[in-house]
Amino acid sequence: MRIRELTPDDVGEADRLRRVAFGGIGEPSLRPGRRGLLAEVDGHVAGLLTIKDFHQFWGGSTVPMGGVGGVAVDPWARGRGVAGALLDAALRDMRERGQVVSALYATVPAVYRSRGWERSGVFEWLEFPLDRMPAGARVATRPLVAGDLPAVRACYLDVASTVDGLVDRSPPTIAADDLLDEAVVSVVPGHDGEVRGYLAAERDAGGLRVHDLIGRDATTQLGLLRELGGWAGVLDRARLLVTDPAVTGLLTNQAIEHTVTTSAWLLRVVDLPAAVAARGWPAAAWLKPAAVDLDVVDEHAPWHAGRRRLVVEDGSVRVEAGGNGAVRLHARALGPWFSGMQDSHALRRAGLLDGDGALLDRLVGAPGVPRLADYF
């Protein structure tokens, strides 16, 4: 089996394989911010995957992340280890490119768990009647214009930097002007060109789909929710992608019965020392100097496997070689711990951790459920 980088000459065959696997191709197989790996068996294309260049917020800092998607194996080649070989190659590729963590949406979780990815966050839609919108104060809104895009991006980053897991939506992976293609975009202007909040939505057969509802403060959020309520009588229901948990958790007038649709996404730590160095650790500022000795079990990423010391000192956190390996961590434990999705007790019960992980828990704290609001 040969694994190589996807080239423009391969796009036709890659598109064919994606149609076989997924029924369509969606985005082009190659585009700015996206690359691919191709597997060949006996000279024939057998499978492929794509990797998107993202930066994901963790602890208020952006961490380079490889978004793995479009993993497809031709039917004749299934059962020959093609997907596993592609994932192994992707791990090496991401490490070489400095993508120290990786996320994906798993249709076949066992394949990805075998290579160290594990459930670490949610992609969540909330559906409820439009007449359940709160009667907040009206805020002045207007349509989006191209000149708003920098201020809209600043508004998004202001909120996204406080929600672990969200990506910073930087180009070229996500084009700066993509928002102009949305059917409905309302902007809440502030002073001196600032944007206080915005919503982006479209109407479909099921009602109103709200892709973004972002506000810097409660007044703005309530005003945007009230604007959604203006669709009541025209449409019955809204589906809101949960970007900011405050919007749905604290502000919407949800009925006792409402529908939550959740897709889990999996995270993989590709390079533990580099990932820890890139992540923000707010709790480290008040922790006394301490260390925990790790034994990382990771056959698919041997570059960070073995004995390591995680050291907290002077408000910073680092991973260095050495230690006695008192806390044994499986590769699948690294993602849920790094994200804060699971504590050491849950990881121990799942058979992914042995030893005292109290310092690991104190470091991550209680950041809330990690979220993605972009699908790939």
- Broad shape: globular
CATH fold topology of the largest domain: Aminopeptidase
Strand content range: 25-35%
What CATH architecture label of the largest domain applies?
3-Layer(aba) Sandwich
| Tally of alpha and pi helices | 10
Order of helices and strands: EHEEEHEHEEHEEEHEHEHEEEEHHEH
Overall residue-averaged pLDDT value: 94
The assigned structural class equals: alpha+beta
Cα end-to-end separation: 27 Å
Q: Specify the biggest β-sheet.
A: 12 strands, mixed
Gyration radius over CA: 22 Å
Poorly predicted parts: none
**Class of the largest domain, according to the CATH hierarchy?**
Alpha Beta
Number-wise, the strands total: 17
The portion of residues assigned to helices is 10-25%
Query: What is the domain total for the residues?
Result: 3
Order of strands across the main sheet: 1-2-3-4-5-12-6-11-10-9-8-7
CATH superfamily of the largest domain: Gcn5-related N-acetyltransferase (GNAT)
InterPro entries: Acetyltransferase_Eis (IPR051554), Acyl_CoA_acyltransferase (IPR016181), Eis_dom (IPR025559), GNAT_dom (IPR000182), SCP2_sterol-bd_dom_sf (IPR036527)
Protein name: Putative acetyltransferase
GO molecular function, one term: aminoglycoside N-acetyltransferase activity
Keywords: Transferase
